[in-house]
Design a protein that fits this description.
Layout (H helix, E strand, L loop, with lengths): L2 E6 L7 H14 L3 E5 L2 H7 L2 E3 L27 H14 L3 E6 L1 H12 L3 E6 L15 H22 L2 E6 L6 H9 L4 E3 L7 H13 L5 E6 L6 H12 L3 E5 L11 H19 L5 E6 L2 E6 H4 L10 H8 L2
Parallel strand pairs: 1-2, 1-4, 4-5, 5-10, 6-8, 6-9, 7-8
Antiparallel strand pairs: 2-3, 10-11
Helix pairs in contact: 1-9, 2-3, 5-6, 7-8
The structure holds 6-O-phosphono-beta-D-fructofuranose.
The site of 6-O-phosphono-beta-D-fructofuranose has 9 residues, from loops.
């Protein structure tokens, strides 16, 4: 291919800029032109395109967010929107497209592929909910942000001898809660993939205090059925402990990407550009067992990550 495009779509994730930088500079290295498409599939429909050069991606590697902007496009869910996007791609002479985002972004890419567009996916979402790759771009940074928050909350929580419920992102996938909970020393982790017993949780908190703990931290993913407020009220009634809540929300999506996220973004975006240069498409690039892999897009879409439930007994063992 001689001319390709790149867009970022869905919820932003730290490392998207590292991905844009690597794709642009790799494409130019292979003598391809590369067009940046703004606001994801919205920009594809509106034709908001700009040609990228080496300087256009200078000084962005360390920044969170995405210089191309992002959106969740309702219009792109329709055939009409998709055909408008395809007409714009043809008009601009764009032969292949790199889409950087999560599962919703990949569904859009698959629709384009079915209509004849050459597409490659690069996985970026803080949720780490894409099962075909070990990690997604943004997850590591988000977990590190949660770890920083846990440390800060511990300072005040231990001074006041309180229990704090920290709500983290993850509507269907509990990985942010699981990884930050284990490495942040949480007393309990609540994830959408597993039911929990309120009684056992209350017992654990009380036993902790009885053996001399002066504070406790519970990490709860947002997708867990009970609301954080209700959980707080119920636990307070059952234990008589002083319980506070903190919702980290969008804090987790910002910040400078970690080394792991920059590495993943750089390697996957470089691979995507190389594949398009070789006229290959219809795949999602990812990383399994430390290696960059290309999985057919139709197989990568909709593969949810299975929660690593084996970590839960370890969390229990270490937080007694
Ligand atoms: O990026 C993924 C995610 O952060 C989810 O965990 C969260 O529920 C969702 O996006 C919220 O994003 P928005 O409010 O931007 O739609």
């Amino acid at each position: 291919m001689r001319k390709i495009g790149i867009l970022t779509s869905g919820g932003d994730a730290p490392g998207m800029n590292a991905c844009i930088r690597a794709a642009v500079r790799s494409a130019l290295y292979y003598d391809m032109k590369i067009i940046g498409i703004e606001r994801g599939y919205e920009g594809l429909i509106d034709g908001t395109f700009r040609e990228m050069d080496l300087a256009s991606v200078g000084d962005i590697l360390h920044r969170g967010g995405t210089i191309l902007k992002t959106a969740r496009s309702e219009r792109f869910r329709t055939d009409e929107g998709q055909y408008a996007a395809i007409r714009n791609l043809e008009k601009a002479g764009i032969e292949g497209l790199i889409v950087c985002g999560g599962d919703g972004t990949y569904r859009g890419a698959l629709d384009l592929q079915k209509k004849g567009v050459s597409v490659i996916g690069v996985p970026a979402t803080i949720d780490n909910d894409m099962g075909y790759t070990d990690f997604t771009i943004g997850f590591d940074t988000a977990v590190n942000t949660v770890l920083d928050a846990i440390s800060m909350i511990r300072d005040t929580s231990s001074s006041h001898e309180r229990t704090t419920i920290i709500e983290v992102m993850g509507r269907e996938c509990g990985d942010i809660a699981l990884y930050s909970g284990l490495t942040g020393g949480a007393d309990a982790i609540l994830i959408p993939e597993l039911e929990f017993s309120l009684g056992e949780l209350a017992d654990k908190l009380v036993k902790g205090i009885e053996r001399g703990k002066n504070h406790s931290v519970i990490i709860k993913a947002e997708g867990v059925e009970i609301s954080t407020k209700e959980l707080q009220q119920k636990l307070q009634e059952m234990t008589a402990l002083d319980i506070r809540t903190v919702t980290l929300a969008y804090l987790q999506r910002g910040g400078s990407p970690s080394m792991a996220d920059r590495m993943l973004a750089t390697l996957t975006a470089n691979e995507a550009a190389k594949l398009l240069y070789d006229d290959r498409s219809g795949v999602a690039v990812g990383m399994t067992g430390g290696r960059i892999v290309a999985t057919p897009l139709r197989d990568a879409v909709g593969i949810r990550r299975e929660a690593n439930l084996a970590l839960l007994p370890l969390i229990d063992m270490l937080s007694r």
